[in-house]
Design goal:
- With about 300 residues, the chain is α/β, with parallel strands linked by helices.
- Helix content is about 50%, strand content about 10%.
- It has 12 helices and 9 strands.
- The strands form 2 sheets. The chain has a 6-stranded parallel beta sheet with strand order 3-2-1-4-5-6. A 3-stranded mixed beta sheet has the order 7-8-9, covered by helices on one side.
- Helix 7 packs across helix 9.
- The longest helix has 28 residues.
- About 40% of the residues are buried.
Length: about 300
């Protein structure tokens, strides 16, 4: 599909892309770049690419497709660095979960004739680094592309075909709408998880050993989500501020209504809410986006089912 694929950043997503691209024969040459000495060493040991570079521009030079797999806060600097070496007709994409920020930070640094097709594979685990990746991560997962109006149609189709080859279901979405959707399905849930685990850690009347020893399924899954990469999620909240605050405001209003129902013993209100939310859970399982297994798909064999 591509003569040269450049992957900038070789963490969980980047290393999974490298493995999947190799497995499906999507690139003649896979060039990897990462600022971390340890990550480059691991990438070489795992033979994730045909070449491994410290300089992102070296990897991106002559590439047909450049995938930015770095934290959102690093996109502008990386794009400015690689922009001058990108060849005409090259496609630049990414894997971040905020798309308006990617367009804002990357597009100004790309020369005329280079096509930006932002992307977001809705897949991941709480693990990070080159060793955490696996080729099947994207199978039966959604990948959302958010190109701006007027983007070269052939470039969009190439990126779409690239993700489809991994077994992903690909959808095109307007950037702002994407950010609103992900704010409620991913970003706010992560914020709640970070907060509730932090609250448990701050409690003076409950010891840390008790929190760990008596963790039920709900808190256990909150800790899994809250174990996600701190740098990545810091950048997500700083770069999708408006959508997150909008959804967080709605959540806060609903939480106050729920608090009122508990205080006044409104059992029917609680039962109706729990019935609606149970139906959503079943719909997610029926859509193939989760498993009904008792461990909620958290066993090593099913680790690709972890929420991104």
């Amino acid at each position: 599909m591509f003569d040269r694929l450049a992957i900038i950043g070789i963490g969980l997503i980047g290393s999974s892309i490298a493995r999947a691209a190799r497995e499906h024969g999507l690139a003649k040459h896979i060039a990897i770049a990462d600022a971390s000495d340890a990550h480059r060493r691991q990438a070489q040991e795992l033979q994730l690419g045909d070449s491994v570079h410290h300089d992102a521009a070296e990897a991106a030079k002559n590439a047909d497709l450049v995938l930015l797999c770095v934290p959102l806060g690093a996109n502008a600097a990386v794009a400015a660095h690689i922009g001058p070496v990108l060849k005409a007709g090259a496609i630049v994409s990414d894997v971040g979960s905020c798309k308006q920020a990617v367009i804002r930070d990357v597009a100004p640094h790309l020369p005329r004739g280079v096509h930006l097709v932002p992307g977001h594979p809705v897949a991941g685990t709480e693990h990070s680094g080159p060793t955490a990746g696996f080729a099947a991560l994207f199978q039966n997962r959604w990948c959302i592309l958010t190109p701006e109006a007027g983007t070269d149609a052939a470039a969009i189709e190439k990126v779409k075909a690239f993700w489809a080859a991994f077994g992903s279901k690909v959808e095109i979405m307007e950037p702002r709408h994407h950010d609103l959707v992900l704010a409620i399905t991913s970003h706010v849930p992560h914020l709640i998880a970070y907060n509730i685990v932090g609250t448990a850690d701050d409690l003076e009347t409950v010891t840390e050993s008790e929190v760990i020893k008596y963790s039920a399924g709900g808190f256990r899954d909150f800790t899994r989500i809250a174990a996600s990469d701190p740098t990545m999620w810091r950048d997500v909240f700083l770069n999708n501020k408006e959508a997150v605050l909008e959804m967080l405001g709605r959540f806060t209003e609903d939480l106050i209504a729920l608090q009122r129902a508990i205080r006044w013993g409104e059992g029917e209100t609680l039962f109706d809410l729990f019935t609606r939310t149970r139906a959503i859970r079943r719909a997610i399982i029926d859509a193939g986006q989760e498993t009904a297994a008792p461990d909620f798909g958290r066993s090593p064999a099913a680790k690709g089912d972890a929420q991104s």
